[in-house]
Specification:
The structure is a single chain. The protein is α/β, with parallel strands linked by helices. It has two domains: 120 residues, 3-Layer(aba) Sandwich (Rossmann fold), CATH 3.40.50; 65 residues, no CATH class. Helices cover 54% and strands 11% of the residues. It contains twelve helices and four strands. Helix 2 packs parallel to helix 11 and helix 8 packs across helix 11. The chain is globular.
């Protein structure tokens, strides 16, 4: 699900003191769940988590909220495959040159390896994720995926990641659930750090 640049979430961000730019809604839900679990009220703090509808849109949102626009405090979260889009966007916005991952992190932009779901599955462990899947009545669907020839012989973690990424809005639904299942001492670094930055 993509958000238009003139969505209510974008309008809300115009009044924020800090904006966290994320690729999609599942990222937003995960960060909001983590903030809630840590006792933070992002709205009261003036922090908006804004899904931009995919990494290719980062430049437009940096233009709008970055130093050439509203100049609010910025942070961001992206998948490893989209790191280059974020890096180029930050450079075009005048936030640095020849940015590497360490440079991006200094600016508050963090990369999930390989993506949000992979980070959460590794942090929880396959057995804990399967319990969450079972609690949602989806274990039968997951077992069906495991039996498919293309997924036999793959690790349970790989199978779970594929399962989260299939089925329409599944990754959006599970983002919050997986964060709620986390031990707060085992939060994936990108999620932990992006919230700490704002």
């Amino acid at each position: 699900m993509k958000l238009a640049e003139d969505s209510p979430q974008t309008a809300e961000a115009f009044f924020a003191q800090a904006v966290v730019l994320v690729e999609g809604i599942s990222d937003r839900f995960a960060l909001e769940a983590l903030a809630r679990r840590r006792g933070r009220d992002l709205e009261a703090e003036g922090i908006s988590i804004l899904p931009i509808g995919g990494a290719q849109a980062i430049g437009r949102f940096l233009d709008r909220f970055g130093p050439q626009g509203l100049d609010v405090r910025l942070a961001g979260l992206c998948d490893a495959a989209e790191e280059g889009d974020f890096q180029r966007g930050l450079e075009r916005a005048g936030l640095g040159a020849n940015l590497g991952r360490v440079d991006m992190e200094r600016l508050g932009f963090y990369v999930c390896d390989a993506d949000l779901e992979d980070e959460l599955i590794r942090a929880l462990g396959a057995a804990s994720v399967e319990k969450v899947v079972a609690s949602q009545g989806d274990l039968g669907s997951f077992r069906t995926l495991q039996k498919q020839p293309a997924w036999q012989g793959r690790t349970t973690e790989e199978q779970l990641r594929r399962f989260m990424g299939s089925g329409g809005r599944r990754k959006i639904r599970y983002a919050r659930l997986l964060v709620d299942a986390l031990d707060l001492t085992e939060v994936p670094r990108p999620l932990d750090r992006v919230l700490a930055h704002v």
